[in-house]
Give the backbone structure.
Amino acid sequence: MLKFIITSLVLLLSLQSFGQTGDLSPIFDLSPDGEKIVVAVSEGESSQLYQYAFKDHSITPLTNNKKEYHSRPVYSPSGNKVLFLSKSSTNQQSDLYLLDIASKTVTKLTNGETYVTEAVFSPKGDKIIYCGAGYLGSYSPIARKAPHDLDLFSIQSDGTGFKKLTDLSAYSLSSLSLSQSGDTVLCSLTEKELDGIYLLSLSDTTVRQKIEAVNNPRPQIGNFFYSNPMYAPNFKSLSFIAPYQLYTLSLHTKECQEVWSTFGKEEQAMPIFSRFFKSGDQLIFSILKIENRQYARSAELLIVDLKTKKTTKVEMK
């Protein structure tokens, strides 16, 4: 049952589904200065991007295309631009776009040849690494359609210089996070015998290093359930998610530490996505509450202090 719940959630997120008006997506990004977040909010038949400022609690709309689903926003290293995915309600194809926050100018970067599932900037912001699917469908006649046969691609920030970086044809490839030098990508990967959190070299894509905790918190559930890795600002640790739990892991000792959990509690929620603040002492993360084995349609955002484990809710009104 747990694997069924997790698989259903992965499909939901990969298809960028949105429900009732005002539903907050669990996929967001934190600005480089740590003062704002960008997130998608459903609005009837569409999903638009908004920027929320922690200091004055202001909410600023960044897009206003009522015929498009916008999702998976990512700030540029300078914080003045946002990458995002967009698709129309009549077309399942998902493409990559770039938004200039000041001018609200939107530029399309990909041409529909692959179904783009997510993207990240290189450390200098001059290049974009993205994940694309060669196949939108299902390996089972009874399963829901989802992006499969996934690989990594790169383009320049102006959309030129297209390159295919891998030949994985992976069943699942997600949660991209680039190393400090930009030559390695941290990700969740499921491909034949590979399953879990990996480091993939972009200079030699046959080089793959699995990241595992020496103090595996729940060995009985398998690597399939460890997901959403994200580098800390100092690149010496990362965050990752297990069902109902959020962890940090030291890349030196490979020891992990639980920082938030509803595992075994009466009221349960699933952590979905996390980002470190610039100081590295706090994590902001999204959750979906679970009631009657169903996920809430709208996410909640929480901030946890990694030293005290004290958690506060982000009130976006």
Summary: Residues 1-20 have pLDDT under 50 and may be disordered.
